[in-house]
Structure prediction request, 339 residues.
Amino acid sequence: MFGLLGLLGVFVAGLMADAAMNGQAGDDSGDGAGDGADDAAAPDNPPDGRQPGGTGWDDPDDDDGDWDDPFAGEGMPASDDIPDPVDEDLILQGSDRADILNGAGGDDWIAGQAGNDALSGGQGRDRLYGGDGDDSLDAAEGDDLLVGGAGRDSLTAGAGNDVLRGGSGGDVLAGQGGNDTADGGDGDDTLLGGAGDDLLDGGRGDDWVAGAEGRDTLRGGDGRDTLDGGDGNDRLDGGEGADFLNAGAGDDWLRLSGGDHATGGEGTDTFVVSGEGSVIADFDPAQDQLFILHPEGVAPLVEVRDSGADALVLVDGTVAARVMGGAGLAPGDIRTMVG
Prediction:
């Protein structure tokens, strides 16, 4: 991206000047690699995304509470705040066309607005807002905030504990290193956590959510989602819709809400079932746990019936789950919990 800027011959900064980029009509490029004070007007409505809420489940062994957003409540940098001459804090604002905007080594604020924009934050604690259009946001190192807005956006956070919000459209969100929080929003999204203990919420749409290494929390939200926990002790909740939950290696916690297909993988896993018609592919009563979720004050009748090589778990006469290869499973192997 920097090579392209060199060819275009565009350099927005100065040794003793203000470093700011306010795009108008046309395709703009901005690079904040200089010294000096930075100032620019903020858009009337900086783009924002839906913040992940509480986990929405009760875990018999753990309670993670709500998902905290480290950027919640933060406003724009003050226009009269003179940045340090070494760690420049830049404010770059694009146009309604296709913009190329690059930060530097400070804590940068970059907004592309409408158009298919390419935004790069560089090092520092950056805030990148794509706005409307199919945007590419790359924050590199630091604890960053990336907001795609409307359109099919690509958000890559790099190292650091980052927050990624896709907005509407089919987005790709990649947290990579660090403990990241990502929310796909509307659309059929792809969320990739990478290394670290990540919090990933697909939102509405048919999403693919993958945690990789670390102790990850994955939520599918609405739609027909696929959740892959990867290595580590993970928490998977498919949400609404018929979902596929693949926990991978580790001692995992899987929430099935009806019509889901779940595989715990290696390790001691906990399956929590509500609704009807879910399938558990690899339950081992010698090491795994199976809970039936029920409302407070209502004691469910739990029965188990063999069906060939499988076991059917019935709650008040309705099949809540089929346990593949579970013939011989007994009601005593199943516990109940309020939720």
